[in-house]
Amino acid sequence: MAYENLLKSVEENAGEREQELRIRARAAARAILEAAEARAADLQQTTLDETKKAAAIERNKLMYLVRVEEKKQLITRKEAIFSQAVTMAEQRLSSLRTDPAYPEIFKKLAQEAAGAIGTGKCQVHVDKRDEQLSLDTLAGLNLPAVVIPDLTTAGGLVITNPDETVTILNTVESRLERIKEHRKLEIYSILFGG
Known about the structure:
Strands 2-1-3-4 form a 4-stranded mixed beta sheet. It is 71% helix and 12% strand. The chain has helices at 2-93, 102-117, 131-140, 172-182, 184-192, and strands at 122-127, 145-151, 156-160, 167-171.
């Protein structure tokens, strides 16, 4: 019987020990599970934060690209309108010679060019249609010049000094070109405001 009691006591101790180990195992498993859940929540939050950040960066990049594209399209439209305005000006100026004010305009163009060339005899290049007007205008201004009708232009003249080292372009086309180059911002401001 003592042996049975001993066996029974060992079994009871083993049962208690087993139950104690099971309780500890459950507690350890619960702790591991809680730690894993916390780690998973942290990873999920980190992934969510990184995804939000990446989405914000992508959105900003796309917004920038859209703005750049809109600006390119706006510039293209402005260039087209500017080009159309210049074409209209060229068309209007092509008939300048028929305007009753053309002789006075020609005189001012001649005075400007002659003032820039300086004193002394010069050569005045004009369109054949302006040859007589040029002779009359230069005589009226007392400018000694040789008139050479070798241009094709909507109006105006080109003056050179005798050795042709200085050339002053004062034709309708050259003035329009200068306006296109140097007054583009002003014209844009007039056309589009700002």
